[in-house]
Amino acid sequence: MQSVQKCSLTVLLMKEGNVGAGGADGASGGDGGVHVDPLPVRRPSSFDQRTRTFCSCPALFITDISCSVGWTNHVVRKTTPRSIQVHQLDDRLSLQSRIDFPVGSSGRDPQHGISPRRATGFREDSSSKLFFVLFASAFLLTNSHLVYKKYYPETTIERLYVPESESRWKVKSEDYIPNDYTACPSNWQCDPDNPKGIKFNEIDGELDRRTFVKKKYKIGPDGRPLNPKGKTGISGRGALAYWGPNHAMMTIISRGKGNKEYYVMRSNRTTSVDAPFLIEYVKKPMLQVFPPTLYQIVIGDMKEIFPEAAILEALEKFYKESSIIYQGYYTDQKNTDNAWSELTILEIDDPSKEYFNVVEAKRVTLPETGEEVIFQWEELPEEQVERKIKEIIKKSDRTTGEKMLHRMRRAKIYFQKQGIHGLLPMLNDFVSNSIGLTGVAVTIAIAYKAVEAYIISSHSTMLHKICLTMFSCRRFATSPAVLKSFSSIPQPRVVGDKHLNDLPDACKVPLSVPLSGLPEASYVTVVSEEDPFKAEITKFNSGLRIASERKYGEFCTIGAVVDAGSRYEALFPSGTSHFLEKLAFTSCEKFQTSEEIVKTLEKHGAIVDCQHTKDAIIYAASCRTDAFKPVLEFIADVMFNPIFSDSELHTARQVVESNVEMVNTKPEPDDLLHDLIHAAAFRDNTLGLRKFCPAENIAKIDQKTLLSFMKTYYTPDRIVVGGVGMDHGQLVDACNEYFEQSVPVWQRRPELLLQQIPDVDKSTAQYTGGEIRIEKDLSNITLSVNPFPELAHVVMGFESCSFMDDDFLCFSLLHSLMGGGGSFSAGGPGKGMYTRLYVNVLNRHHFIYNATSFNISYADTGIFFIRASAHPNHIDNLIAVLCSEFFRMKENLHTEELDRAKSQIKSSLMMNLEQRPVIFEDLTRQILGTGVRKSPLQFLEDIDKLKADDLIRAVDRMLNSRVSLVGYGTLKQMQAYDLIDRAIVNRDLKLLKTSKFYFTVGQNRCLLKKCDLVYWRRL
Fold first, then answer.
1. Domain assignment of residue 246, given as a range
2. Residue 621: helix, strand or coil by DSSP?
3. Would you say 448 and 496 are in contact if contact means Cβ atoms under 8 Å apart?
4. pLDDT tens-digit profile of 368-390?
5. Shared-domain flag, residues 482 and 392
6. Helix (H) or strand (E) holding 133
7. Domain C-terminal end among 355, 383, 398
8. Each residue of 494-533: pLDDT tens digit?
9. pTM as predicted
């Protein structure tokens, strides 16, 4: 269940200066404590606009943070919205830096008589820089729902099942009446059955009742604490000792360097180290470093060797230098609504074997379970230990922040071992993160003795290690804005043994500024007169055309385009082209099994694809350039010698049926609507024939139908073989061998064909206009947990022109001018956020979910249409908005708007042509349709020549045709086609009036009471 949880995240801040208590240069307070002045971290005002990320996952930003660090009073102030929360930190979240506290009461915590735990492990001297770690809280979106077993452990008491939607405490449910169970394990000292009088969320005598999961847990109306992870299905204290958090501890002890030894626990039940480290309940996890059993073993052995004062010093050392690996919720089947386990995992390392060398193997009986175990030293790989830790805490249902905190701690330990101190991130806004993460900001504090020179560029390796260790990133980046932001951060003046002023001047120059003294870069000034898109074309006597374009590199794209497709299926079963697409690259005469096909393709690094459109079937492959001939041989064989076995046809029928079902059930039925607008515009002939196979034809299409269709349309004069990235002469030779001299199977075996084979359909597409309405309930179509909004879809279009028409670029520019998209688009450069459908439609009419324009041109005609979606109650309003936009299409064509549309269409054209498959399709389809290849550079020149008058002419030409209309969904509010057609013919929106609205012309006012929109056009 999605919920907002609060979790702790590590913050590291740096301050220059010498701090100590009683040191030579230290500042000693009256009480012997330590006080550090507030530490401001500022950013330049322009940082928001210029910032870039350090890691690609997720983004890290510098923010404004003000921190005050005192002895027992630590406050993190909230300085930016939605960032770090204001709260009082107590002695658990105390100073985490290594400070030379004096031995004695003045340097100890007055309450517990011991110095705060040092988590960083820095060894400071009087001249070192200090690094402080604070814990701050942030709000994170996380999953807080846990699933427990049916019965409580070792009982027959059944848990009440808690649905995910009701697991949070704030979700009240009258049906939630769980069984209550409270029992005290033998030999345990437990809380009373009635929690009255217990002090929760604080230290209650000898017991720490605070939680690591969030700042505070709630107390129910019955006085019982509430599990911060939500309802568990059983109330009471269960078999746990205490109400609220029951703190457990696991301490990992290691010694030596290189082949490190760990003090592990082995069970008598198995010889494997299945549970290598002891987990035992403790009373004050923040003041202990060993669980009770381990404490008796370690301290007992040390007492035999060391005096008591040395043991106290060792404990102090262990306490300060122990590293916290994990603190948080521990998923235990004994957890209840009112009692739960929390776990602290510490790591103590003795690389010199100064203390742990005296600790010997022991056989003990665990007091909690009565089980006999053996503790002994074992050499274990660190990876195995890390893996075991992950297995333990993986069950803890950690929040995103807790996971991040764990990674920060592991990074800190890693830097400790590498001798790199101090560089770790701070917190703030991740802003638009899709999982709702509120944030982590980063202030970089470079530690002493970390690198030879203090420059940001020299820390790329360190930044990379941080990214890899904490966030599993694979790349990172810096920018001038990031460099600028460092100028305001307090920085150490000494790095290693060098002062910043002693570093070379080159180290002080930002990366955005060229270094002085270097020769200036020379650039190519001579522009080659050769067209980089020059195509070579060869035509055989049979009519087969071969075209190629040079493109340097190790890979090429090769294939063939056939002048066929769904527009030619008037005399064949509709869906034949759909079947040919799905049966492409199946068995053929030279490659009769799928194993042979896969082996051939893998051998040459080839990827094959087949697509069918209204007017073409495309076979293509990308492969290594030196292996294009065997791949071309395979393409030719599947085109002219397919087998189409019964098993392959059966599989193809299943695939086609699945495709048709998917097209009809998609929440956003783009493919279906495009097919329907063609059917409405061309009245079920030529381009109006359906692209996808109708359900009733799936069983009809067989081998004879397919081969007969191929015999009719797979002729040399209707095929163009193209290649991008190979020598033209070699391509011609290969085509002569595999295409020109090949004898198709339908010529050698006429018995495989239909008795009567239709001739080529040479019909010219005739635009007629019309409408198609499909009434369908779309209220419950969804593909995810969250319901998809109920929408009704409308497509409105008019005739445009063919791609050989002089106005082709005019309509293409109109498409770029209108643009469009979804109402929830993230925007960005090139998205067309200033196109008319965004500015005039999506930004002004809240009820419109999507509005996108399209222009599709063919050899003999074309269609320009707008596809839009809205709630069924607003379908009549949507029709009026679309009509208004078509009427206003030729108005106010300002130079700035035209230039923007030209830039977008030109950039889209050239960027698409950077890909070999796109070049291949452009090359072959131009030659198939026009017989020549027009250079993209010529298109750019022609686009620049277009003026507003050209677009006005194209709009008038388009609106003089009859409207084509498609409605899909709940269409009760949709106006009649005759009413819409009459309004468009007369350019008068008043004719679209309904019982709800009245649209005036020439003035912005509404005549009826129930009117929240006004549609008008300027006279």
1. 168-398
2. strand
3. yes
4. 777 788 888 888 888 888 888 87
5. no
6. strand 130-143
7. 398
8. 444 455 556 677 777 888 888 877 887 777 776 667 778 8
9. 0.52
